[in-house]
Amino acid sequence: MALFLRSFVIAFAFLVSCMAAAFVVAYGLIAPELSQFSNNPEFFLFFLFLGSAAGVVTPFYVFAPSFIAILIAEMFSLRAVLYYALAGGVIGALAYFMTDVAARTKGAGTVAPLMQELQWLAAAGIVAGFVYWLIAGRNAGKWKVLP
Fold it and tell me: Nearest-CA neighbor of 46 among 27, 18, 21, 32?
């Protein structure tokens, strides 16, 4: 019964952490134009739209690697916030490389924007790992202990 309830907590924490990562990515998309849009009331709606759209797509990209990281944490009762932040950062970088990077490198542009996208996705992964730790990671593996 404890494992059954724990699975709902894990699923909820995964979805909330994906939404947090999506809003970090949305902020990363808007950040260069932030000074232009800061006085407009539509800016907030645009930010919510981008965050919500990214929140729908994010779980599909990161489900398999996140499932493996969560499974390792639950089996070995890893409760350290550093594990979740590092795993989230690696999964965020992996999500960047799962997209079509070659299409963006074909142009005659510089490499700096590519590194900036990678940094935003790694930061989003770190935030997602921290949010997951706040909701479910702090109690990883406690379902194995009988009361």
Answer: 27
